Amino acid sequence: QVQLVESGGGLVQAGGSLRLSCAASRSISRINAMGWYRQAPGEQRELVARITSGGRTNYADSVKGRFTIYRNNAKNTLFLQMNSLKPEDTAVYYCNADFQSDPNEYWGQGTQVTVSS
């Protein structure tokens, strides 16, 4: 089993920034991919950003140019730098990981991000 622990959420005014962290209990140097998803009340969970083992990234159109996903393999930690936050970014943000040679998919417990107008 792998544990993913998110941190860094909170309340911020529109236009502000937050950095989310996801600490993994297993080395992330052998991932297929890791990503950040979010779920707003009454909405389905959606992909925010994803990074592959080779470092390729992709983003939801709504966050392109504002959010950056990156990882620190030495610290087994995934990050999401969120700038120019908008009220519509308010959601619970979840970390997701897919490891090589492991059929399971792992999720963190989520961290709340609230952006006030």
Query: Helical stretch count?
Result: 0
First-last Cα distance: 40 Å
Q: Helix/strand/pairing class, anyone?
A: mainly beta
Query: In which range does the helix fraction lie?
Result: under 10%
How does this structure look, described?
This protein has 117 residues and is mainly β. The chain has no helices and 11 strands. The strands form 2 sheets. Strands 2, 4, 5, 6, 9, 10 and 11 form a 7-stranded mixed beta sheet that branches. Strands 1-3-8-7 form a 4-stranded antiparallel beta sheet, with no helix packed on it. The chain is globular.
Give me the secondary-structure topology:
Elements: E1 4-7, E2 10-13, E3 18-24, E4 31-39, E5 46-52, E6 57-59, E7 67-72, E8 77-82, E9 91-99, E10 105-107, E11 111-116
Parallel strand pairs: 2-11
Antiparallel strand pairs: 1-3, 3-8, 4-5, 4-9, 5-6, 7-8, 9-10, 9-11
